[in-house]
Sequence to fold (136 residues):
Amino acid sequence: KDYPSDNLHQPLDIDVSQPVWKVETEILSEIPDIVAMVNINMIHISPWSTCLGLIAGAGRILSSGDILYLYGPYKQGNKHTALSNADFDSYLREQNPEWGVRNLEDVVEVASNHNLILEKTYQMPANNLSVVFKHT
Fold:
């Protein structure tokens, strides 16, 4: 067993760029009750379209009251929350112009279009945020 708990499913490899995820067509029937999705350190190190795909898929898979949890660096009000995040953003954009630290308000707006409402944000170490959305 490679995962820590009987009530946690092992991590799934999901290609969020696809309009319908393999997990939706092949795996969901094996998972009796999904109540949350967790995504850590992805949306800043991939194109914006992956954030859109992740949120759209979460909107399809999750039910009312279920949670989408995101973790990573964010801008707030289009401003970096720390100099280290600004430096990291520049580094990411040098690697790929489609990458970068995302504006939290943009993510919240996209999520609201998929029945995911911002529940709470938590300040975390290294100037990151835990961002919790609840499906309506």
Notes: The two ends are 33 Å apart (CA to CA).
